[in-house]
Amino acid sequence: MTLSCVLPRSTNIRFNAKAINPETEALLRWKSTLIGANPLPSWSIANSTCSWSGITCDAAGHVTKLHLSGFGIHATILSVPSP
């Protein structure tokens, strides 16, 4: 499963010069749009994406599932087909 998110271009978040996984970047950009006192604190480039709360990955380290029902998050993820 490929997770794709459409995020506003106005999202103002910067990442280190080190290479960042596109799935990680998409999830962090989506997280930056959430309103509240630091929702999902484990979601950080300091932690492996697969160790984040609510994230399930396959053996190759790709995100396969988001399970965020217990986090009190109310948000939308727009899916788009992968190229």
How would you sum up this structure, described in words?
This protein has one helix spanning 22-31, and strands at residues 55-57, 63-66. The protein is largely without helices or strands and 83 residues long. It has one domain. Strands 1-2 form a two-stranded antiparallel sheet. A hairpin with a 5-residue loop joins β1 and β2 (63-66). This is Leucine-rich repeat-containing N-terminal plant-type domain-containing protein.
Features:
83 residues, little secondary structure, 2 strands
What's the quick description here?
This protein has 83 residues and is largely without helices or strands. The chain contains 1 helix and 2 strands.
